[in-house]
Amino acid sequence: MTAKVGVVVFPGSNCEHDVVEAVDAIGGTGELLWHKDCHLGDVDAVVLPGGFAHGDYLRTGAMARFSPIMAAVACFARDGGPVVGICNGFQILTEAQMLPGALYKNQGLRFLCQPTMLEVESTSSVLTRELVRGDQLNIPINHFEGNYICSDKTLAELRDNNRIVLTYMDNPNGATADIAGICSEGGNVVGLMPHPERAAHPLLGSTDGALLLKGLISGD
User: Fold this and answer.
1) Tally of CB atoms within 10 A around 111
2) Which of 24, 80, 114, 183 is deepest in the core (most CB within 10 A)?
3) Rounded distance between C-alpha atoms, residue 206 and residue 220, angstroms
4) CA distance 138 to 217
5) 204 phi, psi to nearest 5 deg
6) Taking a C-beta distance cutoff of 8 angstroms, is the pair 157, 184 a contact?
């Protein structure tokens, strides 16, 4: 059965169609969901895409976390449903306290848009379950507030419980412990700053992002 991936659209999202196209290209079915909806329908996974939800007027993700659909996303995640936040979506997941830590301004206060080499640190997440620890991926970043920060206690918990999913091989933004992506305790909620949907076609320079998205639609 074809996996259906719901992609939530907030005012200011700008990567939702990229995610839908990438999901469709690897054999899934992408479906747009409006942020004011109170239900997810019959989706098998949810993606919070990149962009500038509500214009980032307060803090990145701070307003989006109160959108009606987020209650349904949180319930879906508690029941074990796969939820992935990409870039702005990662920021929303931390604001909604579905993942620990926060995303802060890049070191050097520069907007970054460039290819980035990542290393797979854990295969215990819905994004990396089709990969091998140590795999290297070429996936672009596109952010100003992608510097992941957390307390020493949280960092120790992430490390001890195998929840650091991806790290930067050459840290571009100053993120704590080179972290590019983390997951929940169950591995079903993942947040990452790089954009896998922008590395899902040969014409984009890399297809490594498709390897992550295939994990999302592969099921158990």
Assistant:
1) 11
2) 183
3) 26
4) 20
5) -90, 0
6) no
Q: Is the distance from CB of 53 to CB of 63 less than 8 angstroms? A: yes
Q: Is the pLDDT of residue 51 over 60?
A: yes
Angle of helix 16-25 relative to helix 208-217, nearest 10 degrees, comes to 80
Using DSSP bridges, classify how beta strands 4-9 and 45-48 pair: parallel, antiparallel or unpaired.
parallel
Determine which one of 16, 121, 145, 197 is catalytic. 197
195 as an active site residue: the answer is: yes
Q: Which amino acid is at 33?
A: L
Taking only Cα atoms into account, the Rg of the chain, rounded to an integer number of angstroms, comes to 15
- Give the C-alpha separation, 220 to 214, whole Å: 12
87 is catalytic: yes
Q: Where are the beta strands (DSSP E) in 66-120?
A: 83-86, 102-104, 112-120
The predicted model gives 66-75 an average pLDDT of 95
What is the chain's mean pLDDT, rounded? 94
Residue type, 5: V
Question: Which residues lie closer than 8 Å to 83 by C-beta, 6 or more apart?
Answer: 45, 46, 47, 48, 73, 76, 77, 93, 98, 188, 189, 190
Structure tokens at 109: 């206060």
Catalytic residue list contains 197: yes
Catalytic annotation, pick one of 16, 35, 87, 145: 87
Domain map (residue ranges) of the chain: 4-217
pLDDT digits (tens, 9 = 90+) for 123-150: 999 999 999 999 999 999 999 999 999 9
